[in-house]
Amino acid sequence: MSVIDKNGLKISLVLFDFINNEALPGTNIKSDDFWNKFEKVVHELSPINKNLLKKRETIQKKIDEWHKNNKGQDLDKKKYLTFLKSISYITEEKENFKIETSNVDEEIASLAGPQLVVPVDNARYALNAANARWGSLYDALYGTDVISGSRGKGYNEERGKKVIKYVKNFLDETAPLSNSSWQNVSKIEIRNEDVVFIVDNKENVLKNKNQFTGYNGEKSNPSSILIKNNNLHIDILIDSNHMIGKSDKASISDVVVESALSTIIDNEDSVAAVDGEDKVKCYRNWLGLMKGDLTANMEKNGKKFVRKLNSNRNYISKNGKEISLHGRALLLNRNVGHLMTNPAIILKDGSEIPEGIMDAFVSTLCALHDFKNKKNSRTGSVYIVKPKMHGPEEVEFTNLLFGKVEEALGIKQYSIKVGIMDEERRTTVNLKECIRKVKKRIVFINTGFLDRTGDEMHTSFEAGPMIFKGEMKKSTWLSTYENWNVEVGLDCGFSGKAQIGKGMWAMPDQMANMMEQKIGHPKSGANCAWVPSPTAATLHSLHYHKVNVFKEQDKIKSRNRAKLNDILEIPKADRPNWSTDDINRELENNAQGIIGYVVRWIDQGVGCSKVPDINNIGLMEDRATLRISSQHIANWLHHGICTNDQVMKIMKKMATIVDEQNEKDPAYNRSGRSAYKKMSDNFENSIAFAAACELVFKGRVQPSGYTEPLLHQKRLEKKANN
Fold first, then answer.
1. pLDDT in tens, 128-138
2. What is the pLDDT of residue 671?
3. Which tens digit of pLDDT belongs to each residue from 269-308?
């Protein structure tokens, strides 16, 4: 790949050209000024970054030794806690405080609703996610298993009736009428400053008249009415000529709900960006979102069209004034953590640039375009989610980095806001002190069960064999961790100022189950929770109509904080007495998930996708799920639960199954992707299979159990061989 020398940096030409020719124009920052300041910050901060990573290794070695020295003994939590404090794994919790973040958009500060996460390297996905602020409830229900029965071909009228009944029941619950049901409404009109519903020639109004916010069309024949509940909008469309509207008593053609209030545009776990070329693809899409001009060529049902960002939605208020509602989700950018480096830029000492430093600069540079047009943040903020930080020192480094970026780019201090992913054990146990380090820029804490479980396994690797993955969700440490995150956030003044988030629903085809289970997230006091698709966002939004999150938070504020001792409980099997069949089933489940994900990552550069599991159920897989599965097998190998030969035999068996699954996958026939190559045809020369195996057999020695270093190495090898 071509490079250019600039200020002692060897920069990938494709990245250099992108910065100079696409990102900088329109910012009033000259190229030389940018690169001069960039170089100084990079060389100042890179050694600090390296030292923090060395500290991770040092602490982990001490924990490993402690477990070795206490092998065979029951965990003495008092003794364990004292030890963790002595090695600075747990720091002293200081006096109480409240966060001081200012200029925060309402989607983060005062609203509660779904949060989408989408890979930045796919423009179509990014646009769909940005536009997922509003979604058709009719479409979301009709196309998913929330409504029972088969769809069949064409429009299924009986299924349609079920959808309409479901939605009108939702309206009865959310925006009830004074003396009747939405099911019985025959006409809707606006009179004075009220919306009136005609039922059997009698007039009804909303029980809570304040819910009526606005409308479109003529008062006597509106084309839509706008209702608000728990600060979320519901747009009821009325069209007697529409296929659905003409068969509806009230001519309601659709109900559009405010869905993904915010979206994380992901540069991390869901992408495979290993060099300058890959990074520019990611950065270019983010730039397009910040400029507001990102497009994607689409084809649906044989028709070609261009997907672009939605405009705002306009209405007439009940007192005749204009209302404009945001048409797009508020976008956050998840940068990479502190661990990874990238060959896109080589430093003076010949080392690769810490990727997180590069991400911070480029993400913010691109966001400067939004500072002018304010189509994303109306408050002049750029929102960066920072994953995989270990403890207060690393959070403090992020604060330092963001401050240096602000200074270099000439923007107001604390313009860059930070979201902390609470997904590493050392961050969890020090969460209050982590928040303190960024109290003037924090907008977000989020529990990430998957990475958090991976770190739990790696941190306590030497303690003993871990329990089955399915049992992890029942562990004391996990439920305590989830509660602890909310409680600490509320103690630090997050309510009404910042997001407290919960993790992903990983089964995009199982929306009925999601509707049953995910209501637990707003009930837990979380004012956002992750979903994998715009459809899931629309459905999950109904939970925030049912639950007033801020009232739930008020209740939680009075309860006692979860116990640190419970968080420190290690999920190991005390006296494992598992059958060979049970062990093999667990190994097969893990191995199939690893290989199914890795082959797409290595061969196609796909960082996140719906991968069929061992039972052919599509699961959203990314590096977090990979981390769990690989660490789990590595742990069992280390403690003699299974053997190398046993695992290798299973890896080959599962590779054959994955080959069969992928041969039938239409994703491999899409334009721009190479044909699927079976691993089982040539195990010895399959880079993807080698990567999957190394993640398992070398899992114990991977830094914090992360999968990125090996994946990046193997993907670069694959790209070099193409």
1. 999 999 999 99
2. 47
3. 999 999 999 999 999 999 999 999 999 998 887 889 999 9
Let me know if 334 is a catalytic residue. Answer: yes
For the stretch 629-654, pLDDT in tens is: 999 999 999 999 999 999 999 999 99
Helix, strand, coil distribution of the chain in percent, nearest 5: 45, 20, 35
Token look-up 């039972």 returns: 615
Does residue 449 belong to any structural domain of this protein? Answer: no
Domain of residue 151: give its range. Answer: 136-258
- Residue 133 tokens, joined: 């602020």
- Of 159, 334, 452, 715, the catalytic one is 334
Identify the burial level of 306 via C-beta atoms within 10 angstroms of its C-beta, where 0-12 means exposed, 13-18 middle and 19 or more buried: exposed
Positions of E strands within 475-557: 499-502, 528-531
Q: 671-678: long-range contacts (C-beta < 8 A, 24 or more apart)? A: 673/604, 674/603, 674/604, 674/722, 676/603, 677/603
Listed residues 227, 258, 289: the one ending a domain? 258
Q: Which residues of 97-126 are buried (b: 16+ CB within 10 A; e: fewer)?
A: eebebeebbebbbebbbbbbbbbbbbbebb
Known catalytic residue: 574?
Answer: no
Number of domains in the chain: 2
pTM: 0.96
Q: Exactly one of 254, 269, 622, 623 is catalytic; name it.
A: 622
